Amino acid sequence: MLEVALRHDFADFTLDARFEAPAGITILFGRSGSGKSTVVNIAAGLLRPDAGKITSGGRVLLDTRNGVCLPPHRRRLGYIFQEGRLFPHLTVRQNLRYGAWFAPRGAAREESGRVVELLGIGHLLDRRPGALSGGEKQRVAIGRALLSAPQLILADEPLAALDEARKSGILPYFERLRDEVSVPILYVSHSASEVARLATSVVALEAGRIVRQGSAAEVLSDPSVLPAGAREAGAVLTARVLRHHADGLTELAAGGVPLFLPRLAQAPGSEMRLRVAAHDVILSRDRPEGLSALNILPGTIAELRPGDGPGAIVALDTPAGRLLARITRRSAAALGLAQGGSAHAVIKAVSIAPADIGAGPRAGETRDLIPE
């Protein structure tokens, strides 16, 4: 468990944040300038705050009241930057060994063969960084961080420098880290898709202060928390793969409601996370008939929040979970939508992007580190 309480005054900005990060991935979420990277830099020992305390696994890294401020090299951290920052003259194998060289004697650590398998980099071991793609470099950087036997991993927008194809390729490896590594990961992102797929918990920041914290479903489905802007609004549903159909569709169950998506690779029984963008949800007062859309979910309007312009965000509680719909205020008035009223959410099967579909956390899968 990572425990953080910080306060720091800048010339035009005050950071005031307090939160806990369990094992798994805790995502600091918010728009640029909200204080996410500042929190990570303080946790890394790169910036000393005016006041604060940080403990990791019961070990005090910072306590300004008692004059404790461990230097970066004594904090037992693994840091994953936006770019891999590998040593160009060393092979992948040697870069990984460099991380292991920093593991304290007798410290609990990951076994190198398991890390290589976890990240799928066995075929890269004899290559140098110049022969790797951006996604491959990031996977090696993750491995180097893991092998240093860290008590905490910091990841400052680790996918920001990758194109969409490479992001999609590396997200499953972060999902495996979340489920299989017993080290808290503090992860900075302003991408709602990354939050939806990866987060064990979310800390939403705005202007240096925490505006919401909780699970990805709780934070992203709150209409008052839109750190990335209304256009990025969306909600997270958890569903289980039921069956694959011969016409290329996969049927999932979400709260007893069937959902259809283009065929997924996951086997029946697999738990999935789906991010449904608010602009892809159409609302109807009555259950519509004669539509091509396959997914129709009845629900109750939990909140209707008008925007500054012509738009509005509607939060709809359905058996599958809370959905958000981005519609115009004119449409809301024409339909007579109001809190407590009923409505149906209409979602096309093909509207959920592959990047917004990920594996759900597997309870009980986290594995212990091994002693050296």
Characterise this structure.
Keywords: ATP-binding, Cell inner membrane, Cell membrane, Membrane, Molybdenum, Nucleotide-binding, Translocase, Transport. This is Molybdenum ABC transporter ATP-binding protein. This protein is α+β, with helices and mostly antiparallel strands and 372 residues long. It has two domains: 2-226, 3-Layer(aba) Sandwich (Rossmann fold); 234-359, RNA polymerase II/Efflux pump adaptor protein, barrel-sandwich hybrid domain (OB fold (Dihydrolipoamide Acetyltransferase, E2P)). It is built from eight helices and 23 strands. The protein has helices at residues 36-44, 92-101, 112-119, 134-147, 164-180, 192-198, 216-220, 329-335; strands at residues 2-9, 14-21, 24-29, 51-56, 59-63, 68-69, 77-80, 108-109, 152-156, 184-189, 201-206, 209-214, 234-244, 249-254, 257-262, 271-277, 282-284, 295-306, 311-318, 321-328, 342-347, 357-359, 370-371. The strands form five sheets. The chain has a six-stranded mixed sheet with strand order 7-9-10-3-11-12, sandwiched between helices. Strand 9, helix 5 and strand 10 (184-189) form a beta-alpha-beta unit. Helix 3 packs antiparallel against helix 4 (134-147). The chain is globular, with a radius of gyration of 22 Å. Residues 363-372 have low confidence and may be disordered.
The radius of gyration over CA amounts to 22 Å
Describe the global form.
globular
Number of separate domains: 2
Main β-sheet: number of strands, strand sense, barrel status?
Answer: 6 strands, mixed
Mean pLDDT level: 88
Q: Alpha-carbon distance between the termini?
A: 22 Å
Number of strands: 23
Q: So, CATH architecture of the largest domain?
A: 3-Layer(aba) Sandwich
- Provide the CATH top-level class of the largest domain: Alpha Beta
> What is the percent of helical residues?
10-25%
The total count of helices amounts to: 8
Give the spatial strand order of the biggest sheet: 7-9-10-3-11-12
CATH topology of the largest domain: Rossmann fold
Which percent band covers the strand fraction? Answer: 35-45%
Q: Which secondary-structure class do the elements indicate?
A: alpha+beta
Low-pLDDT stretches are 363-372
**CATH homology-level superfamily of the largest domain:** P-loop containing nucleotide triphosphate hydrolases
Protein name: Molybdenum ABC transporter ATP-binding protein
Domain Mop: 290-356
Pfam family, one: ABC_tran
Domain ABC transporter: 1-232
